[in-house]
Specification:
Layout: H1 31-64, H2 81-91, H3 97-110
Length: about 110
Amino acid sequence: MDNNKPTTPVTPVPQPVSPIAQPVQSPVVSGSHNKMIMWLVGGLIVGILVIGGVYLLISNKQTKQPQQITNVPSQTPKASPQENLDQQLNVIDVASPDLDFASIDSDLQNL
C-alpha cells in the first residue's frame, strides 16, 4: 500500500435541519393596557350608578312634594243665569249708534 498518496479530506455534508413547529402564542397584553381597560370599565359603571342615583332622587322629590290644594270659594249666583244675562243686555246702550260713529266720521274728514 502506498502511504504516500495524498488524501483528500472528507468534508461533512450538512444535514438539512427540519424546522420544529413552535406553538402559536396569543399576543401578550401588557399590564398598563389591561389596567386602562379596567379603569375604563370601572368608570363606566360608576357613571351609570351616579346617573341612576340622580334620576331616583329627582323622581322621589317630585312625588314627595305635598300637593297644595287651594280651595277656591265657589261663588253662588244670586240670580239665575237667565236673569243675569238679561241684566247685562239691558246695561248696553244701543239707542243711538250714530253718536258713536260721529268721532270716527270727523277723523275721516280730516284725512
